[in-house]
Specification:
This protein is of the alpha+beta class. It has 10 helices and 25 strands. The chain folds into 4 domains: 50 residues, Roll (SH3 type barrels); 90 residues, OB fold (Dihydrolipoamide Acetyltransferase, E2P); 122 residues; 131 residues, no CATH class. The protein starts with 6 loop residues before the first strand and ends with a strand.
């Protein structure tokens, strides 16, 4: 027996030779009947063996057996067509969903005729395989209380609708500081951002200031979708060995978080007006503006502001990985072929020609990373894997899956020209997709491609 647990589920069908077990991750799994197995019992599934799952109770999926059939008492929800785009509403018309048992057969119209869209209802289902799932509704019990039913309120149609509206929702508003760098900084707002660079060029450090004056030419950078780049200046380091001929050396170990350990961590902070160095740069920028007739008050927030009261956040937004000093973060988006190329280009069979038609402006929006660039090499990888998968499907299955939403997960890294890109944000992103990790269907999670590294 292997030491790694594969999955678990409950037994729904058995005969003298085989058993069928329903699992959340993989649907129905068929295995050899090893004897002493019972319907409606939860089992751990190892390499090729089953073991009863000891001391396990799932009150959100209560099981029992009657006359050789497996029943379950669960919560379920149906779509509210008024809040969905027309095509999504049509796609999921009369659908009934439970997070554990997925799509439910409402062939007797019990749900359709009596339940309003978005209402969560307690029901009884029985194991009865059908074209879109494995369970059929046999009884409505009562409308479930709102409290405790939230896990049902992200069905596939809601996720698909949300994913479609994400670009519009996550696009920074014109009055956001990341877009309008000349707005007044709000000192009362607390932000959470990720440190994308531990030590990089500090644009608030005037070029003509000597190091012996205690000016720090580098700083750390935090990123949030609303503020964009925020300088995190090392202010509490004490110089050692300062002489008139030798620049100050800062004892980074006295900092609350060592500089080389900052990258990839999430921090809470507020943004405040400039430190001493930024004020010097601000005066310099003002004098340059005067010579060109520009408004002397217009100094970018990146120059005049910095992060204060920085504290590490334990409850991280996203897991990060630091490789070679560079932060890597997982990000995902809903696949849309038009995002990468025109319909005419997609009809080309010769990739030498088709490659020329791939968009150089492909991107998606992430809740934590803002705009993420997807360059042609990554676009080509995504398209090829999805097309290869579809070509391997049987005609009937291909037709069924043709309109199913597909999720693409990538590893995002900081763009090497992140400072330059920020000058034109949000027309250019701070992050880019480095490699494709996983491509799968939104409903059910069936894998289309998975990176093996």
């Amino acid at each position: 027996m292997t030491t790694e647990l594969q999955t678990f589920g409950f037994l729904v069908e058995l005969n003298d030779e085989t058993v069928k077990i329903y699992t959340i991750e993989r649907g129905i799994i068929e295995m050899k009947n090893t004897g002493d197995l019972e319907l409606g019992v939860w089992y751990d599934i190892w390499e090729n063996e089953l073991e009863p799952r000891t001391i396990y109770e799932n009150k959100r999926c209560e099981l029992w057996v009657e006359n050789g059939e497996v029943f379950a008492q669960i919560l379920a929800i149906g779509p509210n067509s008024f809040f969905l785009d027309k095509d999504i509403s049509q796609k999921y018309k009369y659908a009934v969903w439970n997070p554990f048992l997925k799509f439910l057969d409402d062939g007797d119209n019990l749900f359709k005729d009596k339940i309003r869209g978005d209402d969560v209802v307690e029901i009884v289902v029985k194991y009865a395989p059908w074209k879109n799932g494995n369970f059929k509704i046999v009884q409505l019990i009562v409308e479930a209380p709102f409290e405790g039913s939230s896990y049902c309120r992200l069905p596939p149609w809601t996720l698909e609708q949300m994913a479609r509206k994400l670009p519009e929702a996550l696009m920074p508003k014109p009055n956001s500081l990341c877009v309008d760098q000349f707005r007044k900084i709000n000192l009362t707002d607390i932000h959470v951002g990720v440190c994308i660079k531990a030590e990089a060029l500090n644009p608030a450090c005037p070029k003509d200031v000597k190091p012996s004056q205690g000016v720090r030419p580098t700083c750390s950078y935090l990123f949030t979708p609303t503020l964009g780049l925020v300088r995190w200046v090392i202010t509490n380091l004490k110089p050692t060995g300062l002489t008139t001929s030798k620049p100050a050396e800062y004892n980074v170990k006295s900092d609350m978080m060592e500089v080389d350990k900052r990258t990839g961590k999430w921090y809470s902070f507020y943004m405040a007006d400039a430190d001493k160095n930024a004020r010097m740069a601000k005066r310099k920028e003002k004098s340059e503006d005067k010579s060109t007739g520009a408004d002397e008050k217009k100094v970018r927030a990146l120059i005049r502001g910095s992060a204060r009261n920085v504290k590490e956040v334990n409850n991280v937004h996203k897991a990060t990985c630091v490789v070679g000093g560079e932060v890597e973060i997982e990000a995902s988006f809903l696949f849309n072929a038009n995002m990468f190329e025109s319909e005419e280009s997609s009809l080309l069979k010769d990739w030498n020609l088709r490659r020329e038609g791939l968009s150089t402006d492909s991107h998606f929006w992430d809740t934590d990373l803002g705009r993420v660039e997807v360059y042609p090499q990554i676009s080509e990888t995504i398209i090829k894997h999805i097309e290869s998968h579809r070509q391997k499907l049987e005609p009937q299955e291909a037709e069924k899956l043709e309109k199913e939403a597909i999720v693409v997960s990538v590893t995002a890294v900081v763009h090497r020209n992140f400072m330059k890109n920020f000058e034109n944000y949000p027309k250019h992103g701070i992050f880019l997709a480095k490699k494709v990790d996983t491509i799968c269907y939104l409903v059910g999670g069936r894998i289309i491609y998975q990176d093996q590294e």
